[in-house]
Amino acid sequence: MYLLELAFDGSPDRLAVRPAHRERLRVLHEAGRVVMAGPYSDETGALLLFDVTAEEFEAIIDDDPYYRAPGVTIVRRQEWVPLFR
């Protein structure tokens, strides 16, 4: 599993690409590749958890323009080994 942590700087520019990003996440979730995803309650960032290989994880990030949108910064990309599922 892999986690992706994002930070938002308050720029409204990211909102233009957010609907397509959320649709991608919905499709990945239905396929079992996104376990959980969502913004922090104060809108300063988000946390996403993927159940994919390292190669799939990088491809997902590369294929989604949201992760390169103004106002979005990838803070952390980390493999995660859950103790419980």
Tell me about this structure.
The chain has a domain at 34-85. It is globular and about 35 Å long. With 85 residues, the chain is α+β, with helices and mostly antiparallel strands. Strands 2-3-1-4 form a 4-stranded antiparallel β-sheet. The relative contact order is 0.34. It has 2 helices and 4 strands. It has helices spanning 18-30, 54-63; strands at 2-8, 34-39, 45-50, 72-79. The chain is 27% helix and 32% strand.
Short description:
With 85 residues, the protein is of the alpha+beta class. The protein is 27% helix and 32% strand. Strand 2 and strand 3 form a beta hairpin.
Number of strands: 4
Largest sheet: 4 strands, antiparallel
If you average the pLDDT, what whole number results?
A: 96
Kindly report the oligomeric state of this protein.
single chain
What structural category do the secondary elements indicate?
A: alpha+beta
**Spatial strand arrangement across the major sheet:** 2-3-1-4
Helix content: 25-40%
Structural Rg? 12 Å
Between the first and last Cα atoms, what is the distance in angstroms?
A: 11 Å
| Shape assignment | globular
Helix-strand pattern:
EHEEHE
Low-confidence stretches: none
What percentage of the residues does DSSP assign to strands (E)? 25-35%
Count of helix runs: 2
